Amino acid sequence: MPDTSKQYDTVVNTCKSLFIKKMSDYGSAWRILRLPSLTDQIFIKAQRIRGLQQNDVRKVDEGELSEFIGIINYSIMALIQLELGVVEQPDLSTEEATELYEKHILVTKTLMENKNHDYGEAWRDMRVSSLTDLILQKLLRVKQIEDNEGKTLVSEGIDANYQDMINYAIFAMIHLGEDH
């Protein structure tokens, strides 16, 4: 039986490595992005994945994996923005941003482990296309919550939706890694 925790950590390490490299290139310029802007970036990535899954012809030489990494990293950025708020100028060093990244991924992994316990790793029997659709559904929910100024009556908040998107994207990357 596959070790989900190790597979999860492998995917996270790939994503975090790219995050750190981009922090070295661009600094924390993303800190000026408001939440809807990050949500839209994730939406673009998810829509591209869906397009790749539906279309036979690709005009850009990047596949699903790079887009799932983008979903994970933008979702972490969104969780950091929820925690710290938006700023007018970049304000985080690579070390500070990496610590925040690790903090939020740890909380998200714990959520995954708890849900996996309750659901019996049902995601292993899901298709990557279904995980993509669930990410898109979560994005539409987040957009609605943003339009409602962050208020919900009975539903989980924006942070839980970003965490679910991270976990679905990691599951998709695990599946894609097993297919090769």
Please state the CA-atom Rg, rounded to the nearest Å.
16 Å
Order of helices and strands: HHHHHH
Total helix count?
6
Into which percent range does the helicity of residues fall? Answer: over 70%
Q: How large is the share of residues in beta strands? A: under 5%
Subunit arrangement of the protein: single chain
Class of secondary structure makeup: mainly alpha
N- to C-terminal distance: 18 Å
Describe the biggest sheet?
Answer: none
Number of strands: 0
Mean pLDDT: 93
Shape: globular
- Which regions contain 5 or more consecutive residues with pLDDT less than 50? none
Question: In terms of topology, how is this protein built?
Answer:
Elements: H1 4-26, H2 35-54, H3 64-84, H4 94-119, H5 128-147, H6 158-178
